[in-house]
Amino acid sequence: MTATLSRAVGPPRMRRKAPSRRVLLLVLPMVVVFAAGFAVPLYFVVRFSLEHFDAAGGQPWGFTFDQFRTIFTTPLYGNLILRTLGLALATTVISALIGYPLALAITRGPRRLRAPLTAVVTIPLLTSVVVKTFGWQVLLSTDGLLQRTFDAVGLSSVKLINTSTGVVIGLVHTYFPFMVISLVAALAALDRRTEEAAAALGSPPGQVFRRVTFPQSLDGLAAGSALTFVISMSALITPQMLGGGKVSTIVTVIYQQATTAQNWPLASALGVVLLIITFLILSLQTLAVRRATRG
Amino acid sequence: MRPAGEAGRRVRAGSVVFWVVIAVIVVFILAPLAVAIGSSVTATGYLTFPPQGFTLKWFAAAANDPKFLDALWTSLELGVATTVISVLAGVLASYAIVRRPGVFTGTLEQVLLSPILLPAVVLGLGILFALSLSGWLGTFPGGLLAHVIIASPFVTRSVLAGLRRLDSALEEASRSLGAGAARTFCRIVLPSLRGAILGGAVFAFVISFDEAVVTLFLTGSGFTTLPITIFTYVQYSNNPTIAAVSTVIVVVSAVLVGLVTRGGAQDER
Amino acid sequence: MTATTRRRAPATADVDPRSDVVLAMHGVSVVYGATRVLREVDLSVHRGELIALLGPSGSGKTTMIRTIAGFTHPAEGQLLLHGRDLAGVPVHRRNIGLVFQSYALFPHLSVADNIAYPLKVQKKSRAAIKARVAELVELVQLGGHAGKRPARLSGGQQQRVALARALAMDPELLLLDEPLSNLDANLRREVGEEIRRLQQRTGTTTIMVTHDRQEAFGMADRMAVLRDGRIEQLDTPRAVYRRPANAFMAGFAGDANLIPGTVTATGPTEVTTAAGRLATDDETTAGAEVVVLVRPEDVRIEPPGDAAPGLLAATIAESFYYGSSLVVQADAGGVRVQALVTGAANVRFEPGQRVSLRIDARDAVLVPGGATS
Predict the structure, then answer these.
(1) Cβ–Cβ below 8 Å for B173 and C107
(2) B117-131 burial, b for 16+ CB within 10 Å, e for fewer?
C-alpha cells in the first residue's frame, strides 16, 4: 500500500464564499420586490402613525403620539376596537361550529364525498369576495329571500342588511374555509388507530369522539380559530358592502380616513393597532400550542 | 362503521342528523353564488332572487359596457403579470432557501410568507403612501407591485413544499453524471417541481384576479380592476348587469378550482 | 502481552502490482463540525478491480464515496484520479459514476432518457446517443422497457437502469452505494452476482459500499473494512476471512472461535490452552500469550481420545439443527467453542457428552494483537 502522505490542505478551498453570492443572486428579484412593496410601505405606516394630522396638506416630519392618544382616550375608538373584536369573535365561533362537522365529513365520511365537499369549501375561497358579498346583498336585502323568510316566520325584528348580523353572515361565509382547512389537516393527521383502540376498549362512537378524536384536534381548532379571527378582523369588503356604512370596524375607518378624510396619520395609527392585535393573537396561539405539546 | 342492533340504529339516526347538518351548511356556502348566477337571468329591471322570467340580455349589456370590459382586461393582464413575476422570483428564492439553509435564508422565508397573515388593509395603506409619494398611484405598475406582494407567498409556499419533498439525490445524480448547476436546475429540478409551480401559479392568478382590499386603496382614474368596478357599481346601482359579470367570475373561478384539484396540487389556503 | 507474529507469505493471489492505479487516496480525513468521520484513509484502487467498502453504519463508508464523488471535501489529504489531483474539481467534471442507494432515477424521464442523460450532457450526436442507449439497455437486459417511466419498473429493474445510466458516461471509476439494500432479501444474491458479471465484462473499476459481509465476500476482488473512520483491513475476501488483522476483524468477517493460550513450543509452534495443546503453522516467540482463531467449519468433533497436539478435550453444551448443517456449542476448558458440522444428518450430540475437538495446524491462526482491540 502507498505511504501515508498526510498533508494539511487547509479548509476545503476558498469556494465557501461562492455559494452565498449565488444565494444573493437567486433571492435578489424577490428581495427587490419586497423591499419596494413591503418594507417601505410598512415603514411608512409606522412613520405616519407618529405624525401630526395637518389638514392643510403637506406633511411636516414631526414626531408625536397624538394619534394613539386619540385612539385610546376617545370612547368612539374604544367602541370601534371592541366591535371589531366582537365581530371577529362571533365569526370565529360560528365558523368553528360550521367548520367542524364539515371537516369531519371530509375526513371521516364516505370517500366519494371527499372531493365534492372539498370543492364546496374551496369554491368560496377562490371566488372574489366582492362577488360573494354581492350575492349576500341580494339575499339579505329588505325584499331579499332570506329577510322575507325571516319576516314570514315572525322574526321581522331581525334585520339582516346593514346590521352586524348581516356582516357576520358574510364574514363567516368568506372566512370559514380557513377553519375547515386547519381542522381537516388536524383530523387527517390524527392516528385513526387511537379511535379504533378506543372503540375496541368498549367506547360507543359518541364517546370515542369526545374522549379521543376531539381532544386530539384541539391544535387544529386553535390554529384555525386564530387564523379566522385575525383574517376576519381585517376584512374590508364585507363590512363595507353588508354594513352599508352603519357597521364600522377598525378597517372601514382606516379606509375612510386614508381615502375620504385624507387623515393618513390616524389611519396609520389604527393600522398599527390592528397589526399589534394580530401579532398578539397569533403569538398567543403559538404559545398555547407550545404549552400543550410540552405539558 | 356498521354496528348492528339497537346501538347501530341509534348511530344511524345520529348520522342522518349529521348529514342533514352538512347539507344545510353546503346550501349556506353555495347560496350567494347561486343568487349571483340566478339573478343574472331575471327579466326584471332590478336585482331579485329567485329570478322572474328568463333573459340573457344582462350578459349582452355587460359585454357591451366598456367599463366592465376595460376592467376585465386590466384584471387579466394584472393576473398574468403577477403570476409570471411571482413564479420567476418565487422559484429562484425558494431554491436558495431550501438548498442553502441558514439564518439569512430562514429569515427571508418568514418575510416572504408573511403577507399571508398580515392584515391586507395595512399593506394597502402602506402601498398607498409609497405610491402616492413616488407618483405611481393609480398606475398599472403600482398595482402590479402590490399584487405580487399579495400573491407571491402562495407560489413561494407551494414551491418550498415541493422542493422539500424532492429527493436531493436526484440533483446529486445529475451532477455526478456530468451536468453543471444550471443544467441540473433546468432539466431536473424544474420538471420535478412542475406540479408545485402549476398549483402555486393558478393560486397566484386567482388571488390577483379576485383581490379587492389592497387594490381598493390604489385605484385611480387610469387603473381599476373588475372586482373594484363591481364593488363601486353595487354601491349605487341595482341593475342585474352586475349579476351577469359576477356569474362570469364565478365560472372562471370554478374552472380554475377544477384545474387545481384535477392537477392534484396540495391543499392551499 | 502481545506476541510478535510473523506471517507466512499470503497464499492467495494478491493484486497484480503492474496494473495501474485508477484512484489513490492519501491520508484523507473528513470532518463534519467537531467529528472526524474519516481518519487518514489511504487506498489505492487498481484498474478493473471491484473494491467493497464494508463497515457498520456510521463507520464512514458512505462519507468515503461521497468524498470520492466530490460531494464532500476532505479536510486533509489528497485524492488522485489517474494521477490527477481532484482538489477543486467539481462533481460534474470528475467523470466518476455514482449509483445511489435510492437509485435517484429521474421520475419525469423514461428509462431511455435516463440513460441518455449523461450522453446529452456530453453533447453526443443523436445517432451516437441512440446507439449507446440501445447497447446499454441490452447490456442490463431491459429490452422492451426503454420507453417506460422508472416508477413502472420493479426495484431490481430500477437498479439496472441506475447502473446503465452511470455506465453510459464511461466513468473512470464507478461508485455503488449499498446497491442491494433496497431489494428483497431473496433477490440480493442474484442481483449481486449480475452486477459482478457486468462489472467484469465492462472492466469498470468499481468501489461498492455495503454493510453486508456476504455481499462484500461474494462480489469483491478486495475489501476494505472500515471502523470509526479508519480502514481496519484491506485485503482479498479470502485473506480477510482466513487471516484477520485483529480480533475485531476475526469476528467481523464471520463466526470465530478465539481460544487464548501460551506458546510452549516453537518450530513447529505449539500453543497450550486450558483444554489441551494446539498446533499451528504460524510462527512466533516461545512463552508469548496468544489468541488462536479457529473457524467453526474447521472444528471436527471426535470421540474423546488421548491428549495430543491438535486435540482439545470438551463437553457438548448444546446443539442446533439447521437442515444443511448442525451447529454445536462445546465447552473447552471454560472457552466456548463452536463447531459447524455439515453432511451429517444422522449425527447427534447430547448435552454433557464428552468429546475431542480436532483442529488442524493449518486451520489454527494466531491473531495479531491478541484478544485486545
Answers:
(1) no
(2) ebbbbbbbbbbbbbb
Alpha carbon of A171: minimum distance to chain B alpha carbons (Å): 12
Q: What would the pLDDT profile of A122-147 be if each residue is shown by its tens digit?
A: 877 878 889 989 999 989 988 888 88
Contact B117 A115 (CB under 8 A): no
- pLDDT digit string, tens, across residues C171-180: 999 999 999 8
Lay out the sheet containing C173-177: strands in order across: C96-99, C173-177, C206-210, C50-54, C222-227, C230-235
Q: Is the pLDDT of residue C10 over 60?
A: no
Inter-chain residue contact A9 with C24, CB threshold 8 Å: no
Q: C-alpha angle with apex A180: A105 to A133, nearest 5 degrees?
A: 115
Nearest CA in chain B to A110: B1
In the block, residue with C-alpha cell 375608538: A77
Q: Do B217 and A145 touch (CB under 8 A)?
A: no
What is the C-alpha to C-alpha distance for residues A287 and C212, in angstroms, rounded to an integer? 48
Mean predicted confidence (pLDDT) in A140-160:
85
Q: Grade residue C345 by pLDDT with cuts at 50, 70 and 90.
A: low
Peptide bond into B50 cis (omega under 30): yes
Report the pLDDT averaged over residues A73-79.
92
Nearest CA in chain B to A98: B25
Q: Is omega for the bond preceding A110 within 30 degrees of 0, making it cis?
A: no
Q: If we measure between CA atoms, which residue out of C185, C118, C106, C190 comes closest to residue C153?
A: C106
At C141, list the grid cell.
Answer: 437486459
SS3 state at B238: coil
Percentage of residues in chain C with pLDDT exceeding 90?
64
**Interchain contact, C26 vs A13, CB within 8 Å:** no
User: Quick one: angle between helices B66-99 and B103-113, nearest 10?
Assistant: 160
The subunits that touch chain C, with at least 3 C-beta pairs less than 8 Å apart, are A, B
Which chain A residues touch C42 with a CB distance below 8 Å?
Answer: 1-2, 4
Say whether A37 and B35 touch across the interface (CB within 8 A).
no
Interface test with chain C among B165, B174, B177, B188, by most C beta carbons within 10 Å: B177
Closest by CA position to A281, among listed A232, A213, A244, A216:
A232
Q: CB of C44 within 8 Å of any CB in chain A?
A: yes
* Predicted confidence (pLDDT) per residue in C187-209, tens digit: 888 889 999 999 999 999 999 99
Instruction: Quote the minimal CA–CA distance from C16 to chain B in Å.
Output: 30
Q: How many residues does chain C have?
A: 373
Residues in chain C within 8 Å Cβ distance of A2: 24, 26, 42, 44
Of B32, B145, B146, the CB nearest to A135: B32
- What pLDDT was estimated at residue A14? 35
Closest residue in A to C45 (Cα) is: A1
Cβ partners under 8 Å of residue A142, min gap 6: A161
Q: Mutating which of C15, C78, C86, C236 best tests the A interface, going by the most A Cβ atoms within 10 A?
A: C78
Residues of chain B scoring pLDDT < 50: 1-4, 264-269
Residues whose CB is less than 8 angstroms from the CB of residue B149 and which lie 6 or more positions away in sequence, other chains included? A33, A34, A37, A38, B115, B123, B127
Does the distance separating the beta carbons of C117 and B179 come in below 8 Å? yes
Contact C310, C360 (CB under 8 A): yes
Q: Is the pLDDT of residue A60 over 60?
A: no
Which residues touch C300 (CB under 8 Å, ≥6 apart)?
C339, C357, C358, C359
Look at residue A10 in the predicted model and tell me its pLDDT: 35
Percent of chain A at pLDDT > 70 equals: 90
Per-residue cell: C271: 500453543
pLDDT of residue C338: 94
Q: Could you give phi then psi for residue C302, rounded to 5 degrees?
A: -130, 165
Q: Does C126 touch chain A (CB under 8 A)?
A: no
Nearest Cα neighbor of C299 from C267, C252, C258 is C258
